[in-house]
What we know:
This protein has helices at 3-19, 23-28, 32-35, 42-54, 60-73, 124-134, 143-147, 155-164, 176-181, 184-231, 283-300, 337-358, 376-392, 436-448, 487-492, and strands at residues 81-84, 91-97, 103-112, 115-123, 254-260, 303-310, 362-367, 397-400, 406-410, 413-418, 456-460, 467-470, 474-478, 499-506, 509-516. The chain is of the alpha/beta class. A six-stranded mixed sheet has the order 8-7-6-5-14-15. A five-stranded mixed sheet has the order 9-10-11-13-12, with no helix packed on it. Strands 1-2-3-4 form a four-stranded antiparallel sheet. Strand 10 (413-418), helix 14 (436-448) and strand 11 (456-460) form a beta-alpha-beta unit. The protein is elongated. The model has no long low-confidence stretch (mean pLDDT 84).
Amino acid sequence: MKQSTIKKYIQFLTEVKNSGKTLYDYCNNKCWEENGGLVYGYKGFVGSISSLKKEEFKNEEIQRILDLYYDVTNKKKPSVSVEQIDTDDRAETSIIRGEDGKIQYYSYQIFRKNKAPLSGKLTREEMNTIHRLYSYYGDSLTQRVIARHFVDLSLVDFKRILRAFNITKASAPFAPHYFEELSEEELREIQLREKENSFLRKAEEDQIKNTEKLLKKYAQENIELKNQLKDSQFTVNLNSIDTFKVKNKVSNGNTINLYLADMHIGASINSSPLYGENLNYNTDEIIRRLKVVLTKLSEIGPFKRINLVLLGDNIDCCGIYGKTSRLDHDMPENMDPREQANNFISILKWFVQSLLSNFNSEVYVYSVPCGNHAGNYEYICNKALFGTLNAAFPEVKTELWEEFYGVLEINDNKFICCHGKEQQFMKKPMPLDLNDKTKIMLYEWLDSKHIYGDNIHFIKGDLHSNALSSCKKLSYRNVLSLFGASDYSNYNYSRNSYGVSYDLFINNNLIRGTFENI
Length: 518
């Protein structure tokens, strides 16, 4: 109740008392007109007083209102009984009951040496909370933990209150008013509900603790891996890879984008797959497939410029053996993280060297930051690869895109390249075919980058399939994976072609093609 309302109530009841009339007569005869006093209707005022009576704690002003009310209504004040509780000599505790005989609250006065007594009240809810949390038959929490629920009390004072009311671990998990007001069956039901809630709370706490343990474990593994990387060097040995020459060395011609996606260096296939093309997938098989790509390039050349675009997931693990960047499932692998990194750099350096030695062309190498398999570990490997290429072949231009989408402009065409699934936040990958949701997302991104006009092409990997769809504003293409399909994919979905996709410009005409099942 507002302070201003309390003052008006006191003023009104004082006027009624001074008039010598009862509240009923004063209101019905409109006696306020005689002295210009406050105006209240009888029924409404009595209803407000009834609400004040029901309040458990009444300060001095509320109690004064009630005393005046009893005076002007000639009603008997309700009796409040105080029941002393047997306790030690250093404290006085009482149970305060209302006129209905029910416990209203618990009062205490605890004497302290060289200090003022500790006095106060515990509500019914507060007393039951103490019993439920402290008892062995309840949650059996420590005094320190329970004291946090009572911010106005220190731990020492809270312990004094427990001693004053003789509350121990062996006490019942219910306050005294529960035993007085509820039946044995009702108490049993409440106890069962409390046990169920306690079990659920502890289960959640255990889950949080287990998660913290896993995070600490993964953080430690990450630190150990970083230390190993500091102490080691990437060794790129080209002597083990034979120099490869195509039949006819070709000269200048057109521009081609060569999309190298999802090589998954280090991935392993179990011994009983549906199809055998990836049964012996290793470094030798990857180089064999890339030699076929070089041969086929020589058949459709010549090229003025070759853009080698790396679309992510060219390494299988995230730096932890058999794990993707989200650490949520295991994968069969035939190389450890260091072998995957070294072979990735060796193979790509050999492939770029083969492009330079076989084609009289400008060579550009672009890369997305990473895929969803290798994550930031692949980003580090790409950095190492580009440093190796820049040192070995100064004429080769390189660009490692820092954002999810990278932009490549050729002959008034804009190619927006990405892996197709981000390593941390995306719940699902970008779809195989363009849908309305993806279209809106791409439109919004293009607008944010102020990319407008025609001839906009989105190029992505991840799904290991070749597919093309389009709308008025853009085309949307999934490209092949050099690796192809795992045994999991073959058993659960279908057989995928493997190879390399490309976009070829001949006199500014865009021709799309693939080198499949090579």
